[in-house]
Automatic annotation (TrEMBL):
Assigned keywords, A-Z: Membrane, Transmembrane, Transmembrane helix
Name listed for the protein in its UniProt record: DUF475 domain-containing protein
Organism: Streptomyces fodineus
Classification via Pfam families: DUF475 (PF04332)
TM spans (from-to): 7-26, 32-53, 65-90, 115-136, 157-176, 196-215, 241-257, 269-294, 315-333, 339-356
Length: 379
C-alpha cells in the first residue's frame, strides 16, 4: 500500500538527488535534499486540505486533479514560477534567464544577487502574511500556548496582520536605505524597490486569499444545499444516495484546489530563494517535494491517518514565519543557506514529535478511563 502510493515519489526523489550530485556535487545534494524536505513539510497541511475536498468529488475529477493538477503544480509553479520571478526582477525574458542560469552562472548569480532585495521583500511580505493570519486565528488546538493564546486575542483586532506587515516593511526599507547611504549610497535607489516589491507581495497574498475565499464560499453553499436535501429526504422518508460532486460544482472545486496549491507553492518557491538562487537545484528540490503533495493527498484520501498529527500545520506555519524573517534579514545581511533550511526542518520535526507525544498522552488517558470504568462496574 505504502509503496504503491509513494512509489513514484520515491523514484523521483532518487533520480533528483542523483542528478543533484552530477550537477553540483555533494553540496548540491545537500541543498536539494533540504529544499525537498522544506517543500514536503510545507505541503502537509496542503495535502490535508486537498484530501478533504477530493473525497467529495467523483472519480473523474479526482483523476483530473491528481494528473492535470499535479502537472500544473510541478511544472507551472515549481519549475516555471522561479524563472518568471528572476526574469521579472532582473528584467530579462524567460528564455534568457534560463539560458544564463545554465551557461553563465557567474552572470546569472550577479543578476539574482542584484535582484535579491526585491525578491526577498516580495516573498518576505507574502510569507509573513501567511504566518500572521495563521497565528492570529483563535484555534481549539494550540501547540505553543504561551505564544498562541495571547496572539489569538490580539487577532480580534481587524487588519492587524496587514498593519504589522506594513510596519515591518517600512522598518526594513528605511534600515536598508540608511545602511546604503552610510556606505556611499550605492544601493540607495533600491530602497524604493524594496518598498514597492514588499507592497506587491502583500497585494499578491490578498488576491490569492480573496480567490481562495471565493471558492470556499462556493463550497459552503454547495454543502448547505446538500444538507438541505438530506434533511428533506429524512422528512419524506426517502433515502438520499451519497452523491459525489460533479459538473460545475466539481469544476469550481478543482479551480479552488489549484488556487490553494498556487498559494502553498508561493511559500515553497519564495522560501527556496532564501536557501539558494540556483534554479536547477531549486527545480530539483521543489519538484521532488511537489510529488509528495500528490502522494500524501492520495494517502490521506485512502487512509486519513495524517489528521492525527495535529501540530504539523502549526510547525509548517512557524517554518513559514521563520523563512519570512530570514528573507527580510537577507535584504541587508547574508545568512548561510544550510542554517536557513535547517530552521524549517527543525520546526517541522518538533511539531511532529509534539503530535506523537500528544497522541500517546491521549491514549494513556483513554486507557486510564477504561480501567476506572471497569473497577467501578466491579469487573
Amino acid at each position: 500500500m505504502l509503496l504503491k502510493t509513494f512509489g513514484w515519489s520515491f523514484a523521483i526523489t532518487a533520480l533528483g538527488l542523483v542528478a543533484a550530485v552530477f550537477y553540483g556535487g555533494w553540496e548540491a545534494f545537500g541543498v536539494v535534499a533540504i529544499l525537498a524536505v522544506l517543500e514536503i513539510s510545507l505541503s502537509f497541511d496542503n495535502a490535508v486540505v486537498n484530501a478533504g475536498i477530493l473525497k467529495k468529488m467523483n472519480a473523474f475529477w479526482q483523476k483530473i486533479f491528481l494528473t492535470v493538477g499535479v502537472l500544473i503544480a510541478v511544472f507551472g509553479m515549481r519549475l516555471v514560477f522561479p524563472v518568471v520571478i528572476v526574469a521579472i526582477t532582473a528584467k530579462l525574458n524567460p528564455y534568457d534567464a534560463v539560458h544564463l542560469a545554465l551557461t553563465d552562472k557567474d552572470r546569472y548569480q550577479q543578476l539574482v544577487t542584484d535582484a535579491h532585495p526585491a525578491i526577498a521583500a516580495f516573498g518576505g511580505m507574502f510569507l509573513l502574511m501567511i504566518f500572521l493570519d495563521f497565528i492570529f486565528e483563535d484555534r481549539d488546538i494550540q501547540w505553543l500556548r504561551w505564544i498562541e493564546r495571547p496572539l489569538a486575542k490580539l487577532g480580534k483586532v481587524d487588519m492587524l496582520a496587514v498593519c504589522i506587515s506594513l510596519i515591518v516593511l517600512l522598518i526594513t526599507s528605511f534600515t536598508f536605505a540608511t545602511q546604503a547611504h552610510q556606505h556611499g549610497g550605492a544601493h540607495a535607489d533600491k530602497a524604493q524597490t524594496v518598498l514597492i516589491a514588499g507592497i506587491a507581495g502583500l497585494i499578491t497574498y490578498m488576491i490569492v486569499g480573496g480567490l481562495s475565499g471565493y471558492f470556499e464560499d462556493r463550497l459552503e453553499e454547495e454543502e448547505e444545499r446538500e444538507h438541505e436535501e438530506e434533511e428533506e429526504a429524512a422528512r419524506t422518508g426517502r433515502k438520499k444516495p451519497a452523491v459525489l460532486l460533479a459538473g460545475q460544482a466539481a469544476f469550481f472545486m478543482f479551480l479552488y484546489l489549484e488556487v490553494l496549491d498556487a498559494s502553498f507553492s508561493f511559500d515553497g518557491v519564495i522560501g527556496a530563494f532564501a536557501i539558494t538562487n540556483d534554479i536547477v537545484m531549486m527545480a530539483l528540490g521543489l519538484g521532488i517535494g511537489a510529488m509528495y503533495v500528490r502522494s500524501l493527498t492520495v494517502y490521506l484520501v485512502r487512509q486519513g491517518t495524517l489528521d492525527d498529527y495535529v501540530f504539523l500545520e502549526h510547525g509548517a506555519h512557524y517554518a513559514i514565519g521563520a523563512l519570512a524573517v530570514i528573507l527580510m534579514v537577507t535584504i541587508q545581511y547574508e545568512i548561510n543557506e544550510v542554517i536557513t533550511g535547517l530552521v524549517g526542518v527543525i520546526l517541522i520535526a518538533w511539531s511532529f514529535w509534539s503530535s506523537v507525544r500528544r497522541n500517546r498522552a491521549l491514549a494513556d488517558e483513554g486507557e486510564g478511563t477504561d480501567e476506572k470504568a471497569e473497577v467501578s462496574s466491579g469487573v
